Amino acid sequence: MPKPDGDPTVSLELSVDRSSPVPLYFQLSQQLEAAIEHGALTPGSLLGNEIELAARLGLSRPTVRQAIQSLVDKGLLVRRRGVGTQVVHSQVKRPLELSSLYDDLEAAGQRPATKVIVNTLVPASAEVAAALGVAEDSDVHRIERLRLAHGEPMAYLCNYLPTDLLELETGQLEATGLYRMMRSAGITLHSARQSIGARGAIAVEAERLAEEEGAPLLTMQRVTFDDTGRAVEFGTHTYRPTRYSFEFQLLVRP
Amino acid sequence: MPKPDGDPTVSLELSVDRSSPVPLYFQLSQQLEAAIEHGALTPGSLLGNEIELAARLGLSRPTVRQAIQSLVDKGLLVRRRGVGTQVVHSQVKRPLELSSLYDDLEAAGQRPATKVIVNTLVPASAEVAAALGVAEDSDVHRIERLRLAHGEPMAYLCNYLPTDLLELETGQLEATGLYRMMRSAGITLHSARQSIGARGAIAVEAERLAEEEGAPLLTMQRVTFDDTGRAVEFGTHTYRPTRYSFEFQLLVRP
DNA sequence: AAGTGGTCTAGACCACTCG
DNA sequence: GAGTGGTCTAGACCACTTG
User: Fold this and answer.
1) Could you tell me the mean pLDDT of each successive run of 10 residues in chain B, 254 residues long?
2) What's the pTM?
3) What's the rounded Cα separation, in Å, for the pair B28 and B17?
4) Which of A80, A98, B59, B169 has the maximum number of C-beta atoms within 10 A of its C-beta?
5) Which of residues 27-56 of B touch A (CB under 8 A)?
6) Which residues, including other chains, have CB under 8 Å from residue A19's CB and lie 6 or more apart?
7) Nucleotides of C under 7 A from a protein CB
8) Chain A: residue nearest B90 by CA?
């Protein structure tokens, strides 16, 4: 009698606090995620059916489904009709979900060291104006930062921002990071349009990054939008490929 | 009396077919997406409240919510409590969602021309064995392909696959593409772990891509997993950065 | 105060998978 | 045939935003 994979029962300590302001489905999904993360729910194991799980927790089935669905969307669980819900077993799960690509978005500037080289207002070039959706030659913030790791330059970041969004203090930029500052200013980030490429370093880039002219560089351009569709940031970044690469996990949409 | 933005009413032809096997929420989300795409729902316009929409269509509110939620997940709509549901206005919406990164996953090989250079079995190296989760020196498929655009080489793709998954006919590979073949073989793709970087071309790479030695190349490595967590493909790709870059849209998770 | 989305319930029937 | 997830209903109360 071959078991499907792992343990079909769930003898897990799950409970919800109805007096908490945290939604019930969210409490459940957090507990399940934690159980997966620290191994209480092993890869391939079945979760037990939704009805029984709902009964055990005193929840309705839709609430339990909502919790499970959020983990399916994260790629941690897989549902199969007629079979059940299983924990995905993918090698190296945790550390790879939020990696550099998103990390840049989430915690830009959080790295060991970031040095602000330029923080000024400039008239928008045609390219910048088009990206940010502002008038050409109107003033925009221009920030240039050097990111260091272990004392070595890793990346050179050049960003443009509209002037009416937030204050950009150099000290805070180095301590807090750009994206965190935008969030604190009440900006709700929604999406970003990215382009990743490569090219040989021109003289000034080579000097900034302690490379030689013509050395391969990894490049990234990004325009970030808030939830009203307004462009809130345009960035042109160059990375030393020996020190940095983009690593991330991609979920295939069903 | 300043309107929030756009038209707060929805005078749209929406209807569902209850005799169809297509789920009601999916019928609705498709119609809404189509309306957004061809401009019937303009960016910034409000969708009208869920209750009224449900009543108008003869659906329950949860069903309408499910339809709306799927479009929120795609980044096409934004919900604000106390306000309503609005169409996001982001510049260039359609063509950028499925771009090269996913395109590679979805339709690899669909490009103007793909030439299969190598299609053979080889013993797995340590790196390949680790990526695919097979024993070292056990046989694996090795495929090398040259991708051309307008007669010029654009990328060189080297892929490894376990032997027990599918047949790999060279003709079909050139006509259909690797990912399509995997799907046809009943493999449900789930996620991929990617790494994008850059480096100078070594001699053999330079020759393949008609570049010079040391020229900057864009590189991508990927391991793809099916929904059981099994590694189904490992690929090492090199791109000519003057002909190819990775472009994609990133949604910020709430 | 009115209107919106956010959450939740307690059922129901169906489609699919598997033994 | 038994068990699973997939879909759907008709309500309910709450939290938040806005005028």
Assistant:
1) 40 83 94 90 87 92 95 91 87 41 46 83 96 94 89 91 88 80 84 90 95 96 88 94 85 74
2) 0.86
3) 10
4) B59
5) 43-44
6) none
7) 2-12, 15-18
8) A229
